[in-house]
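Sharing in case it's useful to others searching the archive later.

Someone asked me privately for the predicted structure of Major head protein (Major coat protein) from bacteriophage origin, so I'm posting the question and my answer publicly. Question first, with the sequence:
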Amino acid sequence: MSMYTTAQLLAANEQKFKFDPLFLCLFFRESYPFTTEKVYLSQIPGLVNMALYVSPIVSGEVIRSRGGSTSEFTPGYVKPKHLAWLSEAFV
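And my answer, the predicted structure tokens:
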């Protein structure tokens, strides 16, 4: 004999699990939306020592003696922020 009825088991199974992005909440707390669609890429010439982990909270130091170049481009596709529902497309 079961402790739960079939309806209770089905209701427990249908509850949706809400994903909690722990890593994003801990390390990337803020988002900075931009008003332009342009993307800027900075390049440093030569071999560059890269850090395995860079904290988004602590800022790094810029080595100005190395120089560098920055280029910009506009991507072909920018993902919209709002959700698109299929049911709204056929209204």
